[in-house]
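Reading group handout, session on sequence-to-structure problems. Before we discuss, look at one worked example. The prompt was deliberately terse, the way you'd type it at a terminal:

> structure Copper amine oxidase-like N-terminal domain-containing protein

The input record follows.
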Amino acid sequence: MKKLYIFTLSIILTFMFSLNSFAAPETVSVIVNGNALTTDTPAVIRNSRTMVPFRALFEALGANQIFWDEPTQTVMGSDGVTTIKLVIGSYDIDVNGNTITMDTPPMIINSRTMIPLSAVSSSLGATVEWNPVGYIATVTKGGVVPNVPNNISQIQPSQDTQISNPTQSNNAVLTPMNYGPITGYYAIEDLKRNKYVLNLGENGKAELIDINSKNSVQGTYSYNNSTLSLKVSNFNSTYTREDASYNKNNLILMKDNTNTTSGSTFVMMKISQDEYNKYVK
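And the output record:
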């Protein structure tokens, strides 16, 4: 059977009847001032936030005064100017005596204390940029432009993307373009690794087919430049389009506008009608 190819992280993998896909990976690559953050426990996504081992992040950001209090489950780091304190399970972060509420608390993962990358980095005066294509978080402190490793290069954001100066994997690029019609046939996958084929007809009608059960659901859609309004099965939201190219393959990321970090965000790739018809009962 002819296979459909789509991406996951830095490679194009087979989509139909394959073991791998381009769904959101569980782990994240973290770059701090141009250097890969090396840890014995990898950065992971929890509650749509990147969690990293506290000691590795503190040291990478110059907060070398590090303390851990076992009875109170409190971790503290200081760079001599800013001191922050976090407590396992608490949504509050103490920054020089001021309390800020986070949306994800520190937690224990694989016997390691993991802290939210963005909240802690920002509290220590760093900025965090996110690349959704390669699942790479780039942290920069002190206005230093990162010396990005050889397999990652910087690109300028298009006007249609909400990502500010993202990094990218070697061949994956978010591409600025004047979006045309979106009608046609697509292979798609959501963040939960559910796989479908989707027909967006010229009449505003949408058909979604689960590739495993081949069950189909009818719905509707409308599209204006970079915004898709889709109402079919679990995809019932408006989505902002970001185009990506990888090894000359054209991919489309549809970000759920009601929940940009999770929700029903999905990736899709155009396919032929013949490929689509293989899943029509």
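Points for discussion. First: The two ends are 17 Å apart (CA to CA). Second: The helical segments are 54-60, 117-123, 273-277.
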